[in-house]
Amino acid sequence: MPEARPQIVWLRRDLRLSDQEAFRAASARGPVIPVYVLDDETPRHRAMGGASRWWLHHSLASLATDLHKHNAQLILRRGRAAEVLAALVEETGASGVHALRHYEPWWRNAERALDKALPVGVKFIRHGGLYLLPPGTVTTAAGGPYKIFTPFYRALRERMPPGDPLPVPSLTLPESWPASDRLEDWNLLPDSPDWSAGMRAAWQVGEGAAQEQLWDFAERAGSYEEQRNLPSVDGSSRLSPHLHFGEISPRQVWNVFTRRSGEGVESFLRELVWRDYAANVLLQFHDYPEHSYKESFAAFLWRDHESEAAADLQAWQHGRTGYPIVDAGMRQLWATGWMHNRVRMIAASFLTKHLLIDWRVGERWFWDTLVDADYASNGTNWQWVAGTGIDASMFVRIMAPLTQSPKFEAAGYIREWVPELTELPDAAIHDPSDIERPADYPAKIIEHRAGRERALAAYREL
Ligand SMILES: Cc1cc2nc3c(=O)[nH]c(=O)nc-3n(C[C@H](O)[C@H](O)[C@H](O)COP(=O)(O)OP(=O)(O)OC[C@H]3O[C@@H](n4cnc5c(N)ncnc54)[C@H](O)[C@@H]3O)c2cc1C
To answer: Which domain holds residue 346?
Structure first.
């Protein structure tokens, strides 16, 4: 039976109206007040990086526009989420708060705090929907969590497809709306300087754009397996920021492919499961992105990135290492907030092995610069590449960027992102000789063999 008292929908990384259980459940109970709280204060909070804030601004603007079509508003408030929401409950007389369950340590803290902060009789109801299956529910025969990807994938796969997505609910509106901050006043967009031109050119943000991107990719998914590793080709879905901010649900993505088969589709769905796997790792180890999982690495001889290795770190960040594939990736990241997955692996391996810089330094850089920066996925992938993690490639498996680049046909990609090298023929562009190397393109900051040997020596020390 619907109530007259409003229901608050607390939004975080679930900025959509369709397949959104919190909206569905709230609207079944009463008038709905959607709220986004900009919270940089809850204990253990890892504040969003610059690129994420840019995306967030546009995603909130898009959601507000979509809500207006239902004559509803998006209420914006700032502060410690539990306190802000409890105050809003008092103010509006709401009898329930609905949210999708989140797994970052700060969101778990905020959810616990909200449980305590709400007045007696007001319910805080958490729903699933961020992942294909709720993290923690894919378990071994003995009932424990999986640590390794492949058995996790097999067990999750047996429980797919994930069921039908929910339609957009019809929203009942409250009699009056509480006050809201103005999005512009949050200063989420960069202004001095405005470095977001490349991001504006690369992305359409919001639920509608996410759906378009999904259907565009669905046309190409058959060739995903052959093309996903080729950075010069638009072979992957580019859904990662939309999935991260919840503009689309993984269930909606999976369902497009339920009745399709083939190598490309299977390979894509397997990649999608990595997202669930990363959340499953984070749920087991709450500070996974903060420390090497393999404890022995606490004593590893990383170079000091604030002194001895500072110039090398800067060269990596700015795409000036002298390795064209690494530089192309780092410049794509800086310009668009995204980097091709194969190149992420090469660039991360280069930082942690050739430059012998702690993976956590790279993880932080990606956190600040990726539009899909995701606490679980970023940490899991960095530890995987560095060889320090739970399901990691070994440290001694050192990627050779100069071999990877021609193997994955990166010439076109390098031309796009490293204009100094545009004139070089394919044969020279992956590793220009001293004569071929243009004057405005840097020499290699370390030779491959020297970098490799230094990394292996550090590992032997360990
Ligand atoms: C060092 C490093 C850091 C990374 N940091 C992030 C991050 O912060 N956020 C993030 O979403 N991905 C991260 N990835 C994983 C991967 O690179 C991106 O998900 C992928 O490039 C996004 O492009 P896409 O949407 O076209 O992917 P597709 O290949 O089309 O895959 C579909 C979806 O599956 C998920 N996915 C695919 N691969 C992975 C993976 N290895 N781990 C987790 N999820 C995956 C993503 O949600 C992706 O959108 C990282 C990888 C590396 C090597």
So the answer is: 289-461
| DSSP at 123 | E
Backbone angles phi, psi at 415, to 5 degrees: -60, -35
Q: What's the confidence (pLDDT) of residue 2?
A: 64
Check whether residue 237 and residue 343 sit in a common domain. Answer: no
Q: Which residues neighbour 84 within 8 Å (Cβ) at sequence distance 6 or greater?
A: 37, 39, 77, 78
Residue 144 DSSP code = P
* Residue matched to tokens 């901050």: 181
Q: Within a domain: residue 376? A: yes
Within 6 A (CB) of ligand 1 lie: 228, 236-240, 243-244, 271-272, 274-275, 278, 341, 344-345, 348, 366, 370, 372-374, 377-378, 381-382, 385
Domain count, the chain: 3
Answer yes or no: do 309 and 453 share one domain.
yes
Query: Which residues of the chain, if any, have pLDDT below 50?
Result: none
Distance (angstroms) between ligand 1 centre and the Cα of 282 equals 16
pLDDT of the residue at 394? 85
**Cis (ω within 30 of 0) for the bond into 231?**
no
Which letter, b or e, does each residue of 207-216 get, where b requires 16 or more Cβ atoms within 10 Å of its Cβ?
A: bebbbebbee
Taking the CA of residue 362 as reference, the ligand 1 atom at the shortest distance is 1
Per-residue model confidence (pLDDT) at position 1: 57
Pocket test for ligand 1, best of 372, 382, 393 (most atoms within 8 A of CB): 372
Do 38 and 71 share a structural domain? yes
**CA within 13 Å, CB half, 267:** 16
Residue 173 located in a structural domain: no
Q: What is the pLDDT of residue 455?
A: 96
Is the CB of residue 60 less than 8 Å from the CB of residue 207?
A: no
pLDDT value at position 340?
98
CA of 275 to the centre of ligand 1 (A): 7
The packing angle between helices 359-369 and 50-68, to 10°, is 30
